[in-house]
Design brief:
The protein is 45% helix and 11% strand. The protein has 412 residues and is an alpha/beta fold. The chain has an 8-stranded parallel beta barrel, surrounded by 7 helices. The structure holds zinc ion (ZN).
Length: 412
């Protein structure tokens, strides 16, 4: 029976969003949290972008060390042989790729300005798939950009060609958030039935339907006999109005009326990590979590009105669909209201030892303390805000990896 898997694209769609970004250590922490949560795959970056090279290599090293396991780390590139060549040159041990190309007439006309036909799109894509295979890619997803505005017959042709050349999944991109649950259901089902390839649904919130479209698309793929892979981002951060939110989508799939019995997850999502990852992403992106955010917003479990408060006190199930503990909430959080010693790019050994001591870290000698402090200073140069405890512990545990993450070598 086909199942649903989650692919997080925060480290690609999220970070390419206007006004927003993450430094390489923050991107790594997102991968760590996603892995702990049980997310199937992280689209962890751009293998053709030079300033990502050390970050991508370092994260693949963490995977080899068994730290970033079992999550699958996959890179996003354009579907051209040139991008495939560059990706394997800059990140030789990358094994999972998604290759993206526009498929709608609007974009073929509007982006390529009459220089490319539909047949050119097909041959560019299949050449790129062949190139990725010959370099040893273990899994290849092919992304149809603007799929929701693409002629259905051409989309089927495109997906069949991708499959024939060895692609493992088709990413159906509702790039502009144009679909509604009814249309995406229909399209995903037709694709699954006629192509026989697992379908990724990549939905945006321009019409406020990213989560609804994601589960409708997943249902379509499964009703058509194929696995469904839902693309999500932490806190829904992504281009324009954003993507399907990781936590909200996980809640929708597992807790909405009658859905999970017929459309189960292939790999369980540990929602008790939701609070932590949502708050880290909020801090790292410097974007507050909306008060009414499902599951992790301030008001998600808050009750003021008489009837609601009375009802929830008698039995939480009167007014709550799920428990706050399920989202990893309820633990007291220490907020310092007096003196604060925090990390910074000009921190010294004494303050640093104090901070690490609070986490019960005892350095072997002052040499080790100085070494880790130096890395923490560099991390602060990139983050421009005090590091959180998990980041400090990460640097302490994996100093060599941290050194790589903090290395930027612009070409001459
Ligand atoms: Zn997108």
């Amino acid at each position: 029976m086909p199942k649903i898997y989650f692919i997080d694209v925060t480290n690609r769609d999220g970070v390419q969003t206007a006004h927003l970004g993450l430094c390489k250590l923050e991107k790594t922490m997102i991968n760590m949290y996603l892995n702990e949560m049980g997310v199937f795959q992280s689209e962890f970056g751009f293998p053709t972008t030079r300033h990502e090279s050390f970050y991508l290599q370092a994260n693949l090293e963490l995977a080899e060390m068994g730290v970033l396991q079992p999550i699958r780390l996959e890179g996003w590139i354009r579907a051209t042989t040139k991008d495939v060549e560059t990706a394997f040159k800059l990140v030789p041990n990358i094994r999972h790729l998604n290759l993206s190309i526009s498929t709608s007439d609007q974009m073929i006309r509007g982006k390529f300005q009459g220089k490319k036909s539909r047949d050119d799109i097909l041959s560019m894509m299949t050449d790129a798939v062949e190139a990725a295979k010959s370099h040893g890619a273990e899994s290849i997803g092919v992304n149809a950009e603007d799929a929701s505005r693409t002629d259905m017959d051409f989309l089927v042709r495109f997906a069949l060609a991708a499959k024939e050349h060895g692609a493992h999944r088709l990413r159906y991109c509702d790039t502009l958030g144009y679909d509604n649950p009814f249309t995406i259901y229909e399209t995903a089902r037709i694709l699954a039935e006629n192509v026989g390839i697992p379908i990724e649904v990549h939905c945006h919130g321009d019409l406020g339907m990213a989560v609804a479209n994601s589960i409708a698309g997943a249902k379509g793929a499964i009703d058509g006999g194929q696995d469904a892979y839902i693309n999500v981002t932490v806190n829904g951060i992504g281009e324009r109005a954003g993507n399907a939110d990781l936590v909200a989508t996980a809640l929708a799939v597992t807790k909405s009326k009658g859905f999970a019995e017929k459309y189960p997850l292939g790999k369980p999502i540990d929602l008790t990590k939701a609070w932590r990852i949502a708050n880290f992403a909020s801090y790292a992106f410097k974007v507050p979590i909306p008060v009414n955010q499902p599951g992790v917003g301030v008001n998600a479990f808050a009750h003021a009105s008489g009837i609601h408060a009375d009802g929830v006190l008698k039995d939480p199930e009167n007014y709550e669909l799920y428990n706050f503990e399920e989202l990893g909430r309820g633990e007291p959080e220490k907020v310092e209201t007096g003196r604060q010693i925090c990390s910074g790019e000009y921190s010294g050994t004494s303050g640093f030892k104090h901070i690490m001591g609070r986490m019960a870290v005892a350095f072997k000698d002052s040499e080790e303390a100085r070494e880790i402090l130096e890395l923490v200073r560099y991390a602060n140069v990139e983050a421009q805000k005090p590091l959180v405890e998990d980041e400090l512990l990460f640097i302490y545990k994996y100093p060599q990896i941290a050194r790589k993450l903090l290395t930027l070598n612009p070409p001459e």
